[in-house]
Amino acid sequence: xxxxxxxxxxxxxxxxxxxxxxxxxxxxxxxxxxxxxxxxxxxxxxxxxxxxxxxxxxxxxxxxxxxxxxxxxxxxxxxxxxxxxxxxxxxxxxxxxxxxxxxxxxxxxxxxxxxxxxxxxxxxxxxxxxxxxxxxxxxxxxxxxxxxxxxxxxxxxxxxxxxxxxxxxxxxxxxxxxxxxxxxxxxxxxxxxxxxxxxxxx
Length: 202
Prior knowledge:
By secondary structure, this protein is mainly alpha-helical. The protein has 9 helices and no strands.
């Protein structure tokens, strides 16, 4: 006997559509560049109309925000389950470098958009906010590590946060431009160990 398939709820259909549109946006950025990212092109790529893209995201800015949020939020799985501190910071460094080893479409799109944000005002706000959030999480880890006695007491949480983000983003961009010359999988241990030695108390 054939079991009838369950019909998706309106919320599930909405989430499915938004996921498809965000994935299509990432593909357009990687294949054709940021300038080619238009609502019409994304809709066509995903098999929907431009009107559907506008309905879900409102504007190109809204689409870029959703794309950046979806990618950055899942860049290093498992961090949300970890307590703040040195261990989580090191897991982030290691996981980030592992993620850029096999740069998928979404991660490539994020790095391309991030680089373009320096000269594109409509991207700048989105990526400034994302980087501020990234640094804020790192500051929490450093402060928690100091409080627990795992991180040296004279470590400057703001300085560490800026340096970690700068290093990881820089390595990611090098990997994007020269994947044969930048072996991020080999770098994982060295970079993670650099931060362990730089921050560890005692």
